[in-house]
Design a protein that fits this description.
Chain A: It comes from Nocardioides renjunii. Chain A: Its main location: membrane. The structure holds two protein chains of two kinds. The longest helix of chain A has 38 residues. By secondary structure, chain A is mainly alpha-helical. Chain A contains 13 helices and no strands. Chain B has 15 helices and no strands. In chain B, helix 10 runs antiparallel to helix 11 and helix 12 packs antiparallel against helix 15. The longest helix of chain B is centred in the last third of the chain and has 36 residues. Chain B is globular, with a radius of gyration of 25 Å. The two termini of chain B are 18 Å apart. Classes of the chains: A mainly alpha, B mainly alpha. The interface between A and B is large, with 104 and 116 residues.
């Protein structure tokens, strides 16, 4: 709205401009006005719900922005330093939640990088009903965390759940408290997340596998490369650009884990599976300590961006000469 | 589309070259392959089947430790209970979810198509800056916006209304980026022809560009719908009264209120799943392609 330029309405005739090489200045001004009209609806949303809140968030994090305080006094970096040096009442809960996030990410990301690749390689072979299988593996991902968590809470119920029942059938311990004791709570959260999102990564891998030229495999076979060598020298290099994408997306998703823990373990046992997003939401939206909460979200984001940058350089540095894109 | 053509698998060629070794290893391999696929399918689909079957069980059977894959005593009692219960207005949640996801998708598709077109095709002052800032926000972790957007939504008086789950979420940069990339791939000659005929920018956009963009518009709409339909963190905090909730937020309420009524919970989960599963089945090609394309080019 602030950006829409209606100043140069003088040269109104739209049609004459493109028809006969009009003076370049007028043409461009027209373009600018039209372009901003095209952009206006989105920019309005963007300014109101991305740019303004971003600035507002920074401002809040520098204030004692407590629900119960009528005044929101400026405290500078105190919210940050309090969390970092442990003087904030939320410091311990926050760093525990960061640790929980790290545990979840370290456990889930390797599985979500390797297992979907195996699935994709199996599915990359030609066989009947391939599309049906693809569709099925992707189906849980379409469901959303609320359905997935409610469903698995049932299946993992320690008394009546299917999981314990079939473990019993196999002669294994059948009384595991999957959601209320450790390390089972982590194993459950990671397992459910893998089940839920494996298909997403598999589909991306699958598309990338399809782009690798069969000639490369043929050439490798001519040179006497066995299956493993073909995987190392043809498949993996071919997947490199996509690996960067899959790794980043998976890390970001794991680090942002919330719904599984909120609905399945309620952060428990104790607060052990309470992740950073959970802690930030709880501090800001349940306890209404917005100053602390926004400071937490900034610190959290700082680490997340650090990790993303690291991943990016890890994959970029070793990129071979001839790879496209 | 792009994935289907160049896939001539190593497996099929394997048999052509060394005709001697083609017999049993290939067969063994096939058996192994179907074995793996079978186990995977079981793991992926059986939980969903069990969810469906439990939704049709009596409360007692749903809580029985002996699994019933086909209900002994099939009943729609769970559906009747949650669909007719005032405390858990599931029909209302369903309508809310449909309205929210539908309107947000429309809003995203419309605003992103317009903005994406300007950024792809038009030359204007400040273009680089605007594009740079929009793309830059793709890299901001969304949690930074959580608290401030809550306060802004509250300030406008949108808390506990569907506007809160429709509008702020439509401001994301992905749609604009997605549409811009698509428009860049359309040959500009078609638009130039229309411009020669005297059509203005907007008319060219409506009559030439949009019809060509149907696959991209459908894909973006579909992805937006799925995302909104399944969104959990935001609705669970901004919607609190039972009649304003969407299905995912409602399921959380249902779980808190009926922790042991698994028949009810599974019926709720089925109601929340069916629309997206149907949508997914109908538009599977678009969704999968949209996702895999994002992976290849993103």
């Amino acid at each position: 709205m602030t950006t829409t330029q209606t100043v140069d309405d003088a040269s109104e005739d739209v049609r004459s401009a493109p028809a006969s090489g009009a003076p370049p200045g007028g043409r461009r001004e027209h373009e600018t006005r039209d372009a901003y009209l095209f952009l206006a609806p989105y920019l309005l949303l963007f300014l109101a719900f991305v740019i303004a809140p971003f600035a507002y968030g920074l401002w809040i994090s520098l204030h004692e922005y407590d629900y119960s305080l009528p005044e929101k006094p400026w405290v500078g970096l105190e919210n940050y330093t309090g969390l970092i040096d442990g003087t904030s009442p939320y410091a311990e809960a926050f760093w525990d939640s960061m640790k929980a996030t790290w545990i979840f990410t370290a456990l889930s990301v390797p599985l979500l990088l390797v297992l979907p690749l195996l699935v994709a390689m199996v599915m990359n072979e030609k066989f009947r009903g391939r599309n049906l299988f693809r569709a099925m593996y992707f189906a849980p991902y379409v469901l959303g965390v609320a359905v997935v968590a409610v469903l698995w809470r049932y299946l993992l119920d320690s008394n009546i759940g299917l999981v314990n029942h079939y473990l019993g059938v196999l002669g294994l311990p059948s009384d595991t408290a999957w959601l209320t004791s450790q390390p089972w709570a982590w194993i459950s959260l990671v397992g459910v997340t893998v089940w839920w999102t494996l298909g997403f990564n598999a589909i991306i891998y699958l598309a990338a596998l399809g782009e690798i030229s069969p000639d490369l495999y043929e050439a490798a076979r001519m040179d006497g490369a066995n299956g493993w060598q073909r995987f190392i020298h043809v498949t993996l290099p071919g997947l490199r650009p996509v690996l960067l994408f899959v790794t980043s997306v998976t890390i970001i998703a794991s680090v942002n884990m919330f719904g599984q823990s909120f609905l399945m373990t309620q952060g428990g046992p104790g607060t052990e599976t309470r992740t950073a997003i959970y802690q930030i939401a709880d501090t800001g939206l349940t306890n209404f300590n917005s100053g602390d909460s926004t400071a937490m979200s900034m610190i959290f984001s700082f680490f997340l961006m650090l990790v993303s940058t690291l991943v990016f350089f890890l994959f970029r540095d070793r990129e071979p000469e001839g790879s496209r894109r | 589309m792009s994935t289907a053509t160049p896939t001539r698998e190593p497996a099929t060629e394997h048999r052509d070259d060394h005709s001697g070794s083609a017999g049993s290893p290939a067969k063994l391999r096939r058996i192994l392959q179907y074995g793996v696929l079978g186990v995977l399918t079981l793991l992926f689909i059986s939980p969903l089947v069990y969810m469906l079957s439990t939704a049709f069980k009596t409360t007692g059977d749903a809580a029985s430790p002996d699994p019933q894959w086909i209900p002994d005593d099939p009943t729609t009692q769970a559906f009747d209970a949650i669909l007719g219960n005032d405390g858990t207005p599931v029909v209302r949640w369903l309508v809310n979810s449909l309205v929210a996801a539908g309107l947000q998708s429309l809003l995203i598709v419309a605003t992103a198509a317009l903005a994406g077109y300007a950024l792809a095709r038009m030359d204007f002052a400040g273009k680089k800056w605007i594009f740079g800032i929009i793309i830059g926000t793709l890299f901001i972790p969304p949690v930074i916006l959580l608290i401030p957007n809550y306060l802004i939504t509250s300030r406008i008086g949108w808390l506990d209304t569907l506007a809160a789950v429709i509008v702020p979420g439509a401001a994301g940069a992905f749609g604009v980026f997605f549409m811009r990339q698509f428009f860049l791939g359309i040959p500009p000659e078609l638009e130039e022809a229309a411009a020669m005929d005297g059509a203005g920018r907007f008319r060219t956009f409506l009559t030439v560009v949009l019809p060509l963009s149907r696959p991209a518009l459908v894909t973006l709409g579909m992805l937006s719908f799925l995302t909104n339909w399944n969104d959990f963190l935001w609705p669970v905090y901004v919607l609190f009264s039972p009649e304003s909730q969407t299905l995912p937020a409602g399921l959380a309420t249902l779980q808190n209120a009926n922790a042991v009524r698994y028949d009810l919970l599974m019926a709720g989960a089925v109601i929340a799943s069916v629309p997206v599963l149907v949508l997914y089945a109908a538009a599977q090609r678009f969704v999968v392609e949209g996702v895999s394309r994002a992976g290849l080019k993103g």
